[in-house]
Design a protein that fits this description.
two-stranded antiparallel sheet, disordered N terminus
Length: 173
């Protein structure tokens, strides 16, 4: 197939395809190749979803192609390109999030090694990409006396204080 340029009504250049004698295109092979590429991208997207699971802020949806039907080559190429773009975007977002989480994990290690240099700092579970309410907080040991004596420690919370929710109200008898 060969691209031929033709001037449009407003002077714009628009390419269109013409059939060249003697060149046969195997459309079934092109479809098969595109479907294999789409399947590979979908598998990579599923793998990325599993590795990013508790985190949020990703776009996993792929737009509908107007119901069940045989997709044209153009539609298959658009689907492949859309999947590739989403996969690349989600990889970039995951990379940024994991980099930030690693910085917070390193900060926790520094806080545990030298709590006096990280006074009043707090790192939450959500900062390191884990679910729950646990946090690491550098506080003075023994309150004001510890603050005056420069006795600092890392206090690790035990989690959500009301994880089970509030108690139901007592019923009057």
């Amino acid at each position: 197939m060969q691209d031929v340029l033709e001037l449009g009504p407003v002077g714009a250049v628009e390419p269109f395809r013409t059939h060249v004698p003697g060149i046969e295109v195997d459309e079934a092979a092109i479809r098969r190749s595109l479907r294999e590429q789409i399947a590979k991208l979908e598998a990579e997207m599923a793998s990325l979803f599993c590795s990013a699971y508790p985190r949020t802020g990703f776009e996993w949806e792929v737009g509908s192609r107007r119901g069940p039907r045989l997709l044209s080559l153009v539609d298959l190429e658009e689907l492949r390109d859309e999947l590739a773009a989403k996969l690349q975007h989600n990889r970039r977002v995951l990379s940024d999030k994991t980099f930030t989480e690693e910085l917070y994990r390193a900060r926790i290690e520094e806080m545990l090694l030298e709590p006096g240099t990280h006074k009043w700092e707090r790192v939450r579970n959500s900062d390191i990409g884990e679910p729950g309410c646990k946090n690491w907080h550098v506080r003075p040991r023994f309150g004001i006396v510890g603050m005056l004596m420069n006795w600092w420690r890392v206090k690790i919370s035990s989690g959500c204080p009301l994880a089970g929710g509030l108690r139901p109200p007592l019923q009057a008898q």
